[in-house]
Amino acid sequence: MKSQGEIESAICEGIGRFEQEYMGRGPKNINAFLIDDLLVVRLQGVLTAAEQHLVKKFPTDKGRDLLKQVRCHLVETARPMMEAMVQEVTGVQIVSLHHDISTTTGEEIVVFTLAESPIFRETKKR
Length: 126
Known about the structure:
By secondary structure, this protein is an alpha+beta fold. It has one domain: Threonyl-tRNA Synthetase, Chain A, domain 2 (2-Layer Sandwich), CATH 3.30.980. It has 3 helices and 4 strands; from the N terminus they run H-E-E-H-H-E-E. Strand 1 and strand 2 form a beta hairpin.
């Protein structure tokens, strides 16, 4: 049985590998937080140079909206792979997935709602 930290670490590795293979580039930093039946994944530094240029080049919010739309479609297409990985690591069925990206900070958030809180072994606090 894994500890909470081991689950969160395995999620970071899986999402990082997914980003590298599917999106073509990994994030600069990634953290996962298991909170009861929620799994929150925070990725920092995910925008490519081309995406940053797109956001700055287009007038008003057009570049931002276009980037968010493309990223949303990519996540929805890859959703089965991401959910399978999370289910394998946590041992719990996925209820829903929520996603957003900031074109200003280059931060991406993915939230998985789990059917129940995963069972993990308690670790001793020092």
